[in-house]
């Protein structure tokens, strides 16, 4: 006896038996995870002192798994709106290859594992920060802010900004100004980055009922806010140099890529093609390149041993 296609879909929706390893990997949001790990490494490299390679590897693994757990829990909760958006409809849960319950269970298992291992083998502060990051992303951003306010990505961006602090605390067991500055850079960067995406995906968000800024306040206000947050981000990018833990590589990267980032945000503000939004699409890519360049500069200076500039502002 053969099973009709619609019956197979129903069975898969209930059991998740047609899910593949690739589907579960997709739940982890690997591209987001890679950025989280990269910024966590920067925080770890910037931290004073030394840490055993096994502890460093464990901390980074826990950061990666914690980020993946957040992604899986996010997809479980957002299955209804993901099914309405062209950008997300291909995800495993709206495609019914994995049930929301299975995705949530998978995410919870990963979250508990990551927090527990971080606490047992690294230190309690790093584990606490990781737990806060996961909880903030899932409970505050996903379950509360995302569907209720146009400031969802502004406040919710804190979750994605914390990995440098987790990396630093994994080495030192404490917090200090340098990792918090790196956190501030990511926090300020997030709105311009995601609002650029929202400009050319406005119809998606409107259809799903997600109150992103261009849906609620209009595209003109979104463009203005993008320029404001880009200025703040680029200014924050020079803070490590001013505070005495950034050197010439960071200064060069911040100047070149920051100037490009700011110039492109102005082009977005002057956009005429408000349907295809080509300038916003470019800004989305440039914003990723900017953040990568700033954190790559931090890593390069630490790896090569380039001395930072003397502080111009007391930290």
What does this protein look like?
With 315 residues, the protein is an all-alpha fold. The chain folds into two domains: 10-173, UbiA prenyltransferase (Tetracycline Repressor, domain 2), CATH 1.10.357; 176-315, Four Helix Bundle (Hemerythrin (Met), subunit A), CATH 1.20.120. It has 16 helices and no strands. The chain has helices at residues 5-15, 21-27, 30-46, 53-77, 79-82, 100-121, 124-145, 152-161, 163-172, 177-200, 202-208, 213-216, 219-237, 239-243, 248-269, 278-304. Residues 1-16 have low confidence and may be disordered.
Short description:
By secondary structure, the protein is mostly helical. The chain is built from 16 helices and no strands.
Architecture blueprint of SSEs:
Layout: H1 5-15, H2 21-27, H3 30-46, H4 53-77, H5 79-82, H6 100-121, H7 124-145, H8 152-161, H9 163-172, H10 177-200, H11 202-208, H12 213-216, H13 219-237, H14 239-243, H15 248-269, H16 278-304
Helix pairs in contact: 3-4, 3-9, 3-16, 4-6, 4-7, 4-9, 6-7, 7-8, 7-9, 8-10, 9-10, 10-13, 10-16, 13-15, 15-16
Mean pLDDT over all positions = 93
Any idea what the shape is?
A: flat
Which structural category fits the helices and strands? mainly alpha
Number of domains: 2
Percentage of residues assigned to helices:
over 70%
- Supply the CATH class of the largest domain: Mainly Alpha
Number of beta strands? 0
Q: Biggest sheet, open or closed, and with what strands and sense?
A: none
CATH superfamily of the largest domain: UbiA prenyltransferase
Descriptive labels:
mainly alpha; flat; Tetracycline Repressor, domain 2; disordered N terminus; 315 residues; Four Helix Bundle (Hemerythrin (Met), subunit A); 2 domains
């Amino acid at each position: 006896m053969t099973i009709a296609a619609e019956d197979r879909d129903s069975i898969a929706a209930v059991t998740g038996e047609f899910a593949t390893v690739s589907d579960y990997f997709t739940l982890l949001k690997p591209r987001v995870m890679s950025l989280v790990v990269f910024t966590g490494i920067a925080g770890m490299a910037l931290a004073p002192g030394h840490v055993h390679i096994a502890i460093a590897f464990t901390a980074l693994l826990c950061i990666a798994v914690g980020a993946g757990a957040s992604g899986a829990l996010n997809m479980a909760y957002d299955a209804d709106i993901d099914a309405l958006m062209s950008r997300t409809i291909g995800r495993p849960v709206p495609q019914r290859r994995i049930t929301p319950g299975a995705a949530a269970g998978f995410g919870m298992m990963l979250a508990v594992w990551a927090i527990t291992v971080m606490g047992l083998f690294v230190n309690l502060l790093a584990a606490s920060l990781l737990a806060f990051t996961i909880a903030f992303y899932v409970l505050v951003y996903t379950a509360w802010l995302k569907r209720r306010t146009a400031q969802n990505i502004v406040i919710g961006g804190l979750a994605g900004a914390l990995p440098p602090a987790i990396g630093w605390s994994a080495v030192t067991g404490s917090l200090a100004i340098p990792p918090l500055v790196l956190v501030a850079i990511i926090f300020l960067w997030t709105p311009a980055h995601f609002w650029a995406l929202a400009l050319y995906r406005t119809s998606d968000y409107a259809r799903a009922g997600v109150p992103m800024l261009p849906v609620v306040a209009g595209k003109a206000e979104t463009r203005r806010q993008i320029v404001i947050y880009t200025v703040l981000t680029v200014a924050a990018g020079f803070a490590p140099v001013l505070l005495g833990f950034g050197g010439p590589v960071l200064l060069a990267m911040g100047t070149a890529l920051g100037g490009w980032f700011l110039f492109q945000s102005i082009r977005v503000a002057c956009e005429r093609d408000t349907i295809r939004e080509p300038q916003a699409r470019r800004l989305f890519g440039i914003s990723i390149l900017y953040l990568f360049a700033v954190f790559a500069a931090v890593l390069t200076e630490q790896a090569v041993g380039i001395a930072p500039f003397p502080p111009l502002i007391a930290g």
